[in-house]
Amino acid sequence: MRAFMVERYGSKALRAAEVPEPQVGPDDVLVRIHAASVNPLDLKIRDGDFKAILPYRVPFVLGNDLAGTVVEVGVAVKGFSPGDEVYARCDSDRIGTFAEYLAVRQDDVALKPTALTMAEAASLPLVALTAWQALVERAQVRPGQKVLVHAGSGGVGSIAVQLAKHLGADVATTTSTAHVDLLRSLGADTVVDYKQQAFETVLHDYDVVLDPLGGENLEKSLRILKPGGKVIGIAGPPDAAFAGELGGGPILRAAMAALSFRTRCRARRRHVTYEFLFMRASGDQLRELTALVEKGTIRPVVDRVFPFESTGDALEYVENGRVRAGKVVVTMT
């Protein structure tokens, strides 16, 4: 089958290659991939930013989420049959969606929303699961709470704004001038144009902040929380709890804790908390999200679709910051 490989960490170029079709384990669903989305995570994996915790052996196929058609199921698989249209964010140890086929664990797969095209469905799994795990699982957002979603026009942000609004929150977001109207159409109550205003000067007493940017933006976000509030960061720094999720021992826990020590100390002084989120695959949560998509509560935002042969160009498009809003998708057929 055709696939796009990372030959060495740090290389900007992907290599198109013919590789064997994946073997199907007892709990696996073999998917013929119709579309896969490009995520900033793909760039970080390619560049080796996560090789200390996600040590993929080069060469490997890149790509983290997909939409496609089931062509074979393992002997222990229940609930899926050949011909089913599905979507998934594959588990972090089974990546490789920039290919014609991928064997995915049945627990990570869900039936594709019928209202969406393959390209639209492929744009959702990683970012929608990130939003769900941040706002529903971690923050447990309740009606009437105030939630700030940074970078609302981005892949995660565009879904998180809609989900937070569905949960009954008063939703604020940050974006550039060109995307103010888009964010209002997605349900944001307050849109801060960062080119015109500094969010930390106009927002206050928030319960939850979802921050995909990190750095100085994260530090400023601590200031706008009310006591007891929480910042959930998806760009880092990682914390000891994340090391525990990876099954790491005391040394890794200590290293992760050191990376976030300064941020956590600043949070404590303000009587708020900081948590790092590295989303995980979940077919069950995708089914929850499918129901919201089918009701029209959540809609994908797709910026551009590239043909499979131009997968390298799609990554370059994302890396160079040319995405206007939402996600970039690669289609195989």
Automatic annotation (TrEMBL):
Keyword Oxidoreductase among record annotations: yes
Xref: Pfam families: ADH_N (PF08240), ADH_zinc_N_2 (PF13602)
Gene Ontology molecular-function annotations: oxidoreductase activity; zinc ion binding
| Keywords carried by this UniProt record | Oxidoreductase
Please, which domain of life does this record's source organism belong to? Bacteria
SUPFAM superfamilies for this protein: GroES-like, NAD(P)-binding Rossmann-fold domains
**Domain Enoyl reductase (ER), first and last residues per copy:** 10-330
Record's protein name? NADPH:quinone oxidoreductase
Q: From what organism does this protein derive? A: Streptomyces bungoensis
